[in-house]
Amino acid sequence: MARVRKALWGASIVAALAVAGWTWLARTGGETDRFAACRTTGIAEGSAAIGGPFTLVDENGKTVTDKDVFTKPSLVYFGYTFCPDVCPVDNARNAEALDILLGRGYDAQAVFISIDPERDTPQVVKEFTDYLHPKMIGLTGTPQQVKAASQAFRTYYRKRDSGDGDYLVDHSTFTYLVLPDTGFVEFFKRDTSAREMADRTACFIDKSN
């Protein structure tokens, strides 16, 4: 438990630093930001260099790019299937938000990107995502592919090897909203409820049409 608490504390510090960094990257969008009414962060449209091209392997073992994945509004999370509690809780929340969106008639999806390619094979990722939601896409890849995707989204992760073959992975815990043809538009923190996430995502989708 002490090790888990330490990992969660490290993730909290990373999250705070990431918010500060993104706020620094952002600039005021003013009237030029069509999504201004949907935001609670300081990131204006087109102001933050978050998101970008990547090549990964999906849960069926197929090599895919960001163009293949982001064909509809996507709630994107970087984590790992062996995560003791943070990742399952966060992704269950994302799945609940997705259900709300689908219930309102929005065609959206959730995306889980593993930052633990050593253990998260496509089959392992598939079992994890299929359990959480049928419209959650699981992605993994080589260490180099995963690192490139993480860097594109400015996420953080670090393996904490215990020396006995078991390990945890410290990582940032934001969920990113990516829209087709637009790219990254917003991030959600851990304390965002499923309903708030769905409401704000719906706002972004409406404004993008």
List its traits.
Glutaredoxin; single chain; alpha+beta; 209 residues; 9 strands; two-stranded antiparallel sheet; 39% helix
General description of the model:
There is one protein chain. This protein starts with a helix and ends with a helix. 39% of the residues lie in helices and 22% in strands. It has a single domain, classed as Glutaredoxin. Helix 3 (86-103) packs across helix 6. The strands form two sheets. It has a seven-stranded mixed beta sheet with strand order 2-1-5-4-3-8-9. A two-stranded antiparallel sheet has the order 6-7. The chain contains six helices and nine strands; from the N terminus they run αββαβαβαβαββββα. The longest helix has 24 residues, at 2-25. Strand 1 (55-58) and strand 2 form a beta hairpin. It has 209 residues and is of the alpha+beta class. The model is unreliable at 1-9 and 19-30 (pLDDT under 50).
Task: Give the CATH H-level superfamily.
Answer: Glutaredoxin
Please mark out the parts with pLDDT under 50 across 5 or more consecutive residues, or reply none: 1-9, 19-30
Shape: globular
Q: What would the CATH topology be? A: Glutaredoxin
Give the second-level CATH assignment, the architecture.
3-Layer(aba) Sandwich
Give the N-to-C terminal Cα separation: 47 Å
Can you list the strand order of the major beta sheet? 2-1-5-4-3-8-9
Question: How many structural domains are formed by the residues?
Answer: 1
